[in-house]
Amino acid sequence: xxxxxxxxxxxxxxxxxxxxxxxxxxxxxxxxxxxxxxxxxxxxxxxxxxxxxxxxxxxxxxxxxxxxxxxxxxxxxxxxxxxxxxxxxxxxxxxxxxxxxxxxxxxxxxxxxxxxxxxxxxxxxxxxxxxxxxxxxxxxxxxxxxxxxxxxxxxxxxxxxxxxxxxxxxxxxxxxxxxxxxxxxxxxxxxxxxxxxxxxx
Length: 201
Prior knowledge:
The chain is 76% helix and 5% strand. It contains six helices and three strands.
């Protein structure tokens, strides 16, 4: 069957063209949000070409190779069983290659025009730059927080030192006042005794 990008194909026709099971095609259609008509998926030739471009090229190459092999076999009048075995082997190889391109549930295929891809690429570069700026700012904020904590701890220690110094000075003053009071009291008593002795009182 010849694939044309402006034709519409049923899931069975698409399966025959690309050599992928209808179940796999249904899954691909669902992931790419293809619309259903009469509860069936229909595939545009352009969609098949985009999604299975590499596989179709491989199929064309294999088809040409098989055609040449077929001609050689026909010319050489060899047994047709060899041709069938070769075809089956090629089909198995293609199936294995197609499995490499199956999309998992957490993946999606996006198709961009060249202009759209340029915009996407620019946005991606901008995002990477912004991400680096954010990381830089976060580092600066963390440094400020660390410095602030160190400053707070420093002033806290300084305040504690000043408080202890004030307490010591207060204790010294209290002792000084007590000593002065004791000396004054002692002097008063001594003067009183002397006054008595001298009979001033």
